[in-house]
Structure formats: structure tokens, C-alpha cells
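Example 5.3 — Cytochrome P450 71A1-like
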Amino acid sequence: MDVSPFAALLLVALVSLLFFATRRKPSDGRRRLPPSPPGLPLLGHLPLLGPLPHRKLQAMAAKHGPVMLLRLGRVPTVVASSAAAAQEVMKTHDLAFASRPRARMADRLVYGRDMAFAPYGEGWRQARRVCVLHLLSQRRVRSFRHAREQEVAVMVGRVRRASPGGRGAVNVTALIISYTNGIISRAAFGDEGRFGVDGGEKLTKLFADFEELLGTVTIGDFVPWLAWVDALMGLDAKAARTSAQMDALLERVIADHRQRRRDGRREHDGHRDFVDVMLDVNDEADKNAAGGVMFDDVAIKAIVLVRSAQVLMNC
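Solution (predicted C-alpha cells):
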């Protein structure tokens, strides 16, 4: 296709303008920014990270210093890559960096309300207090030891049945996924096998889709005008479907717990799951309205979902 000289000149001028606009120096009245490698218009440094971003970041830091500014699409990002810089960010000035950027997948899957993704503020502080004191304390983690031991015994039994005499092949990946799902469900939702009606394969797929999507970085987070690519790739539809299924599951579990409590069937401390603990926190806050903090169902679902994943780190 033939391109007129005027159109080519206009295109070059536009690209040059965008390039120099992204590299303009701050005026005297503005704070100086950290050094930044040359980037591309609109996309910034995103295309430069490559398939091994940790190595690329190391090379950039060796050239530009331990603190540098990258522009990931429209998102300015300061990279601290030395122990001294990390201490400044995580200890000396931790309050200035305590908040979290909004992430589309987190908003969809965990309601944007969990401590790991919520912005810093009073709600975040109260959620952190509850998680540290009630959900992830050493006592609470130790209380799941019996469940972990039982799930390990079940997994070993499945290996023996799948490979009698040790002569057959065993799909260890599937067995480990089943084991981790068992730990998640028992720690978060209880020992009564509430997911049996859904079937093991359906539950496994739901958890797998949830974990995969929660770790997915969408293009729209960094380059909003390319957000349609996420929809084209099916991410939006998959996130909506997974979120709806997980939400329905949690709604059913919370309703079941509340019904058992109304019937007087409360679990003793050694068998209380995350939902029981969160409902206990709300009951205590209701009794002491002046000093307690209530969590609505959305906050309970968000906290339980992400804390369930953290249980696996202690398995």
C-alpha cells in the first residue's frame, strides 16, 4: 500500500512527540524521579521485560541503580532491588507503601475486600487484626494438624490402590491437587464433606480456575485501551463464571453454618473452621458494640477465600 510523504511525516512526528513526552524531565517545582531506562510510547517498559523479567530487571538495575522507575503501560512503578532500598520501602517508609493497587481480577474474585488486595485503611487494619489473632495464629494452624494427617493418609491409600504392589503408574499431580483441595475445604468450611454433592472433579476444576485467575495479570490493568484483548482471550467470561460459582458455594456454606448455630450445633474449638471463626468474631462484636467490628458476608467470603490459600503454605 502506497503511503504519501505527508502521512509518513505526520506519523514520524506523532511517534516522536509521544516518545519525548514520556521522557520529559521534571520542572524545578516537581520532585525528581528515579532514573528510568528508555521505554516505548504508550506501552512503556512492558515489552522490554521479556519472558524472564527477573533477569531483565537485574540487568536494568545493574545499569540504572538499585532504585529505578519503570512505566508498565500507564502504571508508573518504582523498582527497589537492593537490601537497603527494600528496607526503606518495607520498614522505614512502610506506611507510604502499605496500600495496594487495584487489580481487576482481585476485584472480581475476592470482591476487592481481602487484606491482601484491599487499600490501606481502617478496614484493612481490622481485617489484619482478625487474621493474625484468629485465623492464622499458631494455635489455629495447629488445630488443622489432624485434618492434614487424615488427608495425607487418604492420599497414601489412593496411591496404594492405584499401584498395587508398586508396579503401576500413579498420577501424583492429581493426588496432590486432591489433597490440597481437601485441606482447603476442611480448614475453611469444616469436616463434614459439604462439597460431596458437587463431585470431586467439579470442585477441583473450580479451585484450579480460581487460583489461576487470581494470579493472572490482565492487559487492561496496565493498558486500558487494550482491555478488549482480555475479553477476546476469554478471561473476562472465565472470571465471571468462576466468580459466580465460587460465590454461590460460599453463600451456601455460610448459610449452612448460620443454620447450625441457630440449631445449637456449634463446633468445639479444635474443629472450628474459618467460617465459624468469622461468625464468632461478628457475634462478639455484636455483644460489645462499642469496641467490636462487624464483617458483612462479602468481607467474610473475601477473607476466607484468601486465608484458605495461605493454609496450604503450612501443609
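Remark. Residues 5-10, 12-24, 193-199 have pLDDT under 50 and may be disordered.
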